[in-house]
Specification:
cell membrane, transmembrane, MetI-like_sf, single chain, mainly alpha, MetI-like fold, two-stranded antiparallel sheet, transmembrane helix, membrane, 13 helices
């Protein structure tokens, strides 16, 4: 047996577990979801093929449209603010003493259960005895709003939780990106008399653009899949003001037991996320700079 063939066999042996895991837990469920989306099935009886009726029904379903609008509004709030805050905090912590300890504190919420985080924030945002409204009253003599029972505030309130929860993950990414920027750029800028603000705008942000692009893609995907916070804190209310697209998928599958419709909604969400991701990848050619 020649050396190249032996190396090929060992290579296949090493990647085989990962490929099997990808096949069993990703590819097969994905194909199954596509097939199920064209079926009528209640989870117990026989499946019946109905073509694209489930997709047509979802496109005309008012709950699907509402859930998509709520998810889009949530994404618009979470992604830009979360990325901006993560960049600013990463820059602030980049060269301070005890950076590792700060990074640990900021990252701790990321590894905390979403259910636990939601329950804590459910208490913090309680309109009657929540700690945020209590301090607003004591310190500023302001009557706090109904964070989770006001239709206009419920999505921003959940978004505020999510920004805090995911801030540490993005911050760590940007800290790693900052470590990869050569100090020679800043030294040259200082010799030319550039201020700290100009260095940040013309050096830091452009050279962080690959990290920003990755963080934006991942944040957008995660934000369109928000479910736990809405389920635990509001149950999709008030009056479905926090009814998200994944909550809609859950409702169709495990409350109404219309698994075909649920799979169709999930496939449509997949197509939406894929389309937005491909669009961002296309647009990124204009603002993402690799180098330095």
């Amino acid at each position: 047996m020649n050396k190249r063939l032996t190396e090929g066999i060992w290579g296949v042996a090493f990647i085989l577990p990962q490929m099997l895991g990808l096949l069993v837990f990703a590819f097969i469920p994905l194909v199954s979801a596509f097939v199920l989306s064209m079926m009528k099935w209640d989870g117990f009886g026989e499946k019946r093929f109905i073509g694209l009726d489930n997709f047509a029904g979802q496109l005309n379903h008012p709950d699907f449209k509402l859930a998509l609008a709520n998810s889009a509004w949530y994404t618009i709030l979470v992604v830009p603010l979360g990325i901006l805050l993560a960049i600013l905090i990463a820059v602030a912590l980049n060269k301070v003493r005890g950076k590792t300890l700060y990074r640990l504190f900021y990252y701790m919420p990321v590894v905390t259960s979403s259910i636990a985080v939601s329950i804590v924030w459910l208490w913090l945002l309680n309109s009657e005895f929540g700690i945020i409204n209590v301090y607003l009253k004591q310190w500023f003599e302001i009557q706090g709003p109904d964070w989770l029972t006001n239709r206009k505030l419920v999505i921003p309130s959940i978004a505020m939780l999510s920004i805090w929860w995911g801030l540490g993950g993005n911050m760590v990414l940007f800290l790693a990106g900052l470590q990869g920027i050569s100090s020679t750029y800043y030294e040259a800028a200082q010799i030319d008399g550039a201020s700290k603000l100009r260095q940040f705008w013309h050096i830091t942000l452009p050279l962080l653009s690959p990290t920003t692009f990755f963080a934006t893609i991942m944040s957008m995907i995660g934000s369109f899949q928000v479910f736990d916070q809405s389920f635990v804190m509001t149950g999709g209310g008030p009056a479905k003001a926090s009814y998200t697209i994944v909550y809609h998928i859950y409702q169709l599958a495990f409350v109404e037991f219309t698994f075909g419709k649920s799979a169709a909604a999930a496939v449509m969400l997949f197509v939406i996320i894929l389309t937005l991701t491909l669009f961002q990848m296309y647009v990124s050619k204009r603002w993402v700079h690799y180098g330095g």
